[in-house]
Design goal:
Blueprint: H1 2-22, E1 38-53, E2 62-78, E3 86-99, E4 112-113, E5 126-127, E6 129-141, E7 144-151, E8 159-160, E9 169-181, E10 184-197, E11 205-208, E12 215-216, E13 219-228, E14 233-241, E15 245-258, E16 261-274, E17 286-297, E18 300-310, E19 330-331, E20 349-358, E21 365-378, E22 392-406, E23 412-424, E24 442-453
Antiparallel strand pairs: 1-2, 1-24, 2-3, 3-6, 4-5, 6-7, 7-9, 8-19, 9-10, 10-11, 10-13, 11-12, 13-14, 14-15, 15-16, 16-17, 17-18, 18-20, 20-21, 21-22, 22-23, 23-24
GO molecular function: porin activity
Organism: Pseudomonas cichorii
Keywords: Signal, Transport
Length: 456
Amino acid sequence: MFKRMNKAISSVLFMGLSAWGKIAECKTTEEGFYEQTQVTSHLNYWQRTRHEWDATAQNSDVKSTLKQAVLAQHIDITSGYALNTLGLDIGLFSSAPLTASQGSIHPNTMGLSQEKQLSEERYSGDRAGWSYYKAAGKWRSGPFWARLGYLQPHGQGLLATNWSFVPGTYRGLEAGVKLPQPSGVLEMSYFWSDQYKAPWYTKTDSFLQGDGRTRIHYLHTLGLKYQDDKDYSVEAAWGQAQGYRQQFFFKVSRPVNITLMPALMTYQLYAARDQKQEDAQYTDLAWLQALTIGSTQGSLGWRIEATSVKAEGSMGYFTPRMTPAYGSSNGRMDIGWDSRSDFNAHGERALYTGITYKLSKEERGLTVGIAHTYAWNARPAGSIDIQQQTSLTEQAWRYSIAYKLRTGSDRYTQFDFRHIRYRNSANGSPQQSGYSSIPLKSNESILSVSVPLKFL
């Protein structure tokens, strides 16, 4: 079956490339293949430094544990639709490491690993090179659409990708429909995949269970969303890693007014259940619930978000992935705090507050931000023989500065800097005490620059 899948993808891409050369012979239309084709490219620089409290030190010495810098470029070709029906999307990127930490426990996720795929990973450093992140044929007819090849999920399901400057890549297919309703829009989609690669690898890999040997033959997900013309929306989705894990998702959004400022409030539920009792990472239904509210009006933006987690079992935390290993796939999570920790340990409650302010009324200019996260009642994994009454607290401050510089009539170079100060109440390494998702105390700084390149 999987060999046939590979042949089908190759055939679709071959036909798409052949059509690209032949369409010029046909009479073009307003929505033709060439007329609607878009080519975009960016040159990117990224640098990260991290200092952590060494868990083995007697006097809590600060130790430099990460120093990475990378230069990368990507090009994205999104075609129009031939005969208003068929199209082809291609994405390529290249990367070159400038500095790298010695003995890092993970590859530079903004670059390329020395190994081609996750199953070969030996953490031996990074390398210069190039790869694809998208090569997919696409089809549409009326309200229906479909995509096949090496692609990213676009619909309402539970699968997502890891990110560097570009997204990760699934080998698979996706189909959906968008149906206008009297007072809104109903959207539904289905996604299926048998292989995946994170953006720091160059070759897709099969999915594996927690033992690292047993194969998961496919992941798939079905989702739907209804949004009315007053910005109320309801979403639901189901996903499965074949024979291994099921996931569920529900989200409702509604507009609210707070002191005459329009805002959007959401309730979100992410849940997972292991299908195998042996080697199960969750002992029962695991979940993460969230309540969020936020607004952007003029120069001011703000968010307040709260989460609660239940994830009893040997893993000790909730993950949106359907597969266990980091970088083996990724799952949908509409909450992202960029504050070093994921704040997702069993029993943990977290509160995030963030504010941004733009100092210019134009597209270009300076934007500053500050955010704080406080979490409590984090419990250790059930597989660790320590008292379950033990708990930890976590706290993070994030400071950010962003600047947009106009470099063309419709192009802007983006500069982003953020500093994260992360602390927890652990004595030594939390991971040695059963908190496998909680990092060491740290200070981290990240600088990124993105320069758009012009194509005729």
